[in-house]
Amino acid sequence: MDLQSIRQNQLDAGLPFLKLNHSNGLRTPGYVPLKILSIEDGTVLKSFNHLLHYNKKVDFIEQFNEKLLVKQENENLQILDVRNLEL
Q1: What is the pLDDT of residues 46-74, one digit of tens each?
Q2: What's residue 82's pLDDT?
Q3: Which end of the chain, N or C, is more open, meaning fewer C-beta atoms within 10 Å of its C-beta?
Q4: What does the radius of gyration of the chain's CA atoms come to, in whole angstroms?
Q5: What CA–CA distance (Å, rounded) separates 44 from 24?
Q6: Beta bridge partners of 31
Q7: What are phi and psi for residue 44, nearest 5 degrees?
Q8: What's one Pfam family here (predicted)?
């Protein structure tokens, strides 16, 4: 991972979360790759692709405790449980 692509990082409920700059503009390719890392040694605990509405701008992706909040333009807020990947 290129360190210049990291826009922000945060620690919430013991889970590190990195926000990355999108390299090809404002529109999305249809998914966002996500990884949950161990705060102890940085090993990948879970890796998955979260599907997005194709060609819609991402307003924000935020972590709140064990939930991932995803909002895209003109779409409803998606709340994903990162433990079991259920919406």
Answers
A1: 888 888 888 888 888 888 888 889 899 99
A2: 85
A3: N
A4: 13
A5: 25
A6: 51
A7: -75, 120
A8: DUF7899
Residue entry with tokens 């290129």:
2
Rounded to whole angstroms, the Cα distance separating 19 from 9 reads: 6
What residues does each domain of the chain span?
A: 3-81
Q: Cα(56)–Cα(53) distance, rounded to whole angstroms? A: 6
> Six-digit token pair at 20?
């990355």
Q: Convert 12-26 to b/e letters by CB count within 10 Å (16 or more is b).
A: eeebebeebeeeeee
Q: Output the CA torsion sign for 65, 19, 3, 28.
A: positive
* Helix count and strand count (H, E) for the chain: 0, 7
Give the rounded distance of the alpha carbon of 40 from its chain centre: 20
